[in-house]
Amino acid sequence: MYKIIVKRCKNASYRKKMHEIECFKRSNPRQFWRYFKYAGIRVSNSVSLDDFKEFFANLSDGLFKCEHDEAKDFCCTHYFNTDNCSFPELDRCLTVDKIKQAIKCLKRNKAFGSDCLLNENFIECSDILASHLCDIFSGIFNSGFYPESWMEGT
Predict the structure, then answer these.
(1) DSSP 58
(2) Taking residues 131-154, what's their average pLDDT?
(3) DSSP 149
(4) What is the pLDDT of residues 121-142, one digit of tens each?
(5) CA distances from 21 to 15, 60, 80, 81, 144 (A)
(6) Residue pLDDT, tens place only, 26-67
(7) Which among 9, 11, 96, 151 is most buried, taking Cβ atoms within 10 Å?
(8) Which pTM was predicted?
């Protein structure tokens, strides 16, 4: 019986605290956020700078060791340190069908980028936009001059 009473008291206290937080959320946002600011403070063990450096320095040890036989054979038969590397699949012409296929892979309800264009715009208007996008991308790829905004990230 004692455990049941303690449990009820804890639950009542918890509900009361949640009610207070809800009230702070509407009436006193500063107090609301102050509660969370101090609620999450924990004492942590400090890591020395040398240990930190050693951990990240050793992180890549053994990264390039190959354990898979098929991967070893592939690495032995291919020379990767060449300047005249060519990939024929990257030299293929861009087609409207490929653009439409890429648009079909876009997900809905995602945030827009720096261009402020939603995926839904492309999805809903793919029949109209695909040929224009194909012309634009082909021109950019053929010229070799890429828009500066393609270098930006969020």
Answers:
(1) S
(2) 85
(3) G
(4) 999 999 999 999 999 998 888 8
(5) 10, 46, 60, 61, 57
(6) 787 777 777 767 665 555 667 788 888 888 777 766 666 666
(7) 96
(8) 0.44
Candidates 118, 91, 88; CA nearest to 103 is 118
**For residues 73-93, average pLDDT:** 73
Six-digit token string for 118:
């939603």
How many Å is the Cα radius of gyration of the chain?
29
For every residue of 83-141, DSSP letters joined together read SS---GGGSSPP-HHHHHHHHHTPPSS----TT---HHHHHHTHHHHHHHHHHHHHHHH
How does pLDDT run across 88-110, given as a tens digit for each residue? Answer: 777 778 899 999 999 999 999 98
Which of 70, 133, 62 lies closest to 98, judged by CA? 133
**Dist. CA 33–CA 25, nearest whole Å:** 8
Q: Give the residue extent of every domain in the chain.
A: 2-39, 50-81+91-151
Pick left, alpha or beta for residue 116 (phi over 0 → left; psi -120 to 50 → alpha; otherwise beta): left
